[in-house]
Amino acid sequence: MGLLKLQSVSKSYGALQVIHGVSFSVTEGETLGILGPNGAGKTTLFNLISGDVACDSGQVNYRGRDITKEPAHQRCRAGIGRSYQVPQPFGNMTVFENLVTAACFGGGQAEQEAWETAYQVLGLTGLMSFANKSAGSLTLLNRKRLELARALATRPQLLLLDEIAGGLTVYEAEELLQELHRIKASGVTMIWIEHVVHALLSIADRLLVINFGTLLAQGKPAEVMADPEVQRVYMGLEVAAT
C-alpha cells in the first residue's frame, strides 16, 4: 500500500533552488535510503515531508490525502515522526520526561498512555537504564538513541531519520543499527538519510540519490550503487564510509 507520495515538489530560498521537481513514493513497511553529497537538498526534502518548511510547488500526499498545506504538528499527529541531524533533547529533563513530553505533545496521547509509550520505547532503544538520567548528561550514542526514541514516542507510521549514525564509531553505529532493524521488523516505514553507507545498505530496501536538488537515481541498492553517475557523484563519501 502506498504510504507517502511526493509529486514534483520544489523549494527555493531566494535565487537558490534547493529542491527541484522531485517525485517519489514510499510503500508501507518499506525502508527507503537517501544518499547525496552535502548540500544536495536531503534535509530540505525531509523538512518538506515533515512540514517544517512549505513547498513552493508540488504536492505531498500521505495515506492518499493531500497534506501539502498542513503544519508540522498535524503531520506528526497523523503519524509522521522524525529525528534531526543534531539531537535536540530537553537537556534539563530526564530521558523519561523527554519521552513523555514527545508522546503527549507530539503524539497527542493522554498522560497515562504517554507513560506507557515512554516505557515501551525505553526498552526498544536500549535506554531503560538511563530513564532517570538528565538528557544533557548523555554520551553522543545515547543522545542519538534519545533522538530516535523521542520520534518513536509519537507512535509514527512513517519515521524520518536524518543522519542518525553520523559521528558514531563503527561499533556504536552497529549497536544503533540493531535497534533500527528491530524498529523495521515492527512494521514502521522508514526514510533514512545517511552518509554511513554500509549501515544504510544493510537495511534499505530501496535507494534514492539526490544531487543539486534533483533526483539522480532510484531503485534497488545494488543497482543504484553500480550506477556510473552515482559512483562519480558519490564515490568520495562511499570510500570514506568503508
Question: Which key features would you list for this structure?
Answer:
six-stranded mixed sheet, alpha/beta, four-stranded antiparallel sheet, 9 helices, 40% helix, Rossmann fold
Overall description:
This protein is α/β, with parallel strands linked by helices and about 240 residues long. The protein folds into 2 domains: about 1-80 and about 160-240, 3-Layer(aba) Sandwich (Rossmann fold), CATH 3.40.50.300; about 90-155, no CATH class. The protein has helices at about 40-50, 70-80, 95-105, 110-125, 140-155, 170-185, 195-200, 220-225, 230-240, and strands spanning about 1-15, 15-25, 30-35, 55-60, 65, 80, 160, 190-195, 205-210, 215-220. The strands form 2 sheets. It has a 6-stranded mixed sheet, sandwiched between helices. The radius of gyration is 17 Å and the shape is globular. The chain starts with a strand and ends with a helix. Residues about 235-240 have low confidence and may be disordered.
